[in-house]
Here is the input.
Amino acid sequence: MKKCDLDYTQSICDALNTLRQQKPLVVNITNYVVMNNTANALLAIGASPIMAHSQEEMAEMMSFAGSLVINIGTLDSVWIPRMIYSVEQANANNKPVILDPVGCGASVLRTNTARQIVALADQLTIRGNASEIIALAGEQAQSKGVDALDSSDKAVHAAHHLATQNNCSVVISGATDYIVTTTATIALNNGHEMMPYVTGMGCSHTALTGAFAAIGEPTGLAATAVLGIAGEIAARDAAGPGSLQVNLLDTLYHLDEAVLREYIRINLVEDGCH
Here is the structure.
């Protein structure tokens, strides 16, 4: 492993240790399908989740929470003002915002709402599948509802555009995961082919990204490595998606630095966005 890759690996291990020491509170405005999944993933890794959707308490919540996760999976006209207000409160309190643009490109409502949140957030991380990232950047994507039909490598150019334009980090989920910042592009090749068959796996990825952002790691690198490695290990003893979901929580709970170092497959693709 090259020195730069070793340095990134060390930063991931340090971030996991810090997260477990600090146990950050993560405010989630997320979708009805995955609230239980994402809350359990956050608890398993050592964070503290709260699913807070009321606009009346959001200013107070963002005054002491570590980060805000917004997931537009079950978007409607009631949720959108809450999301916008919550981003404004995150900005006012200097807190990171993590956006999961679920189904961006599948409808005008989802695409416009996701772009509105991107434009509004001061400290932003975007985590989505390839088709969502491509659509969010204004390029032509292939999707079927919330499912990506594009490979993650096809979204790297769009991620570069989003990162540069919005001074943010973009995480592309896929067979190869990419972390694209304004200074580097990193590839991770962990995970398992069964993971997309568990609903909300990407949403859990976003929630974990929020937990790490709350302790000062906003790139999405640590969350992506942790979930990919945990999924890879959990799949070994899983009979199918049902047992994979249970095994994943147990694996996240027991994950440590030695396991991260053993399993991680990381590669610095390029320095800087071109």
In short: The CA atoms of residues 106 and 144 lie 7 Å apart.
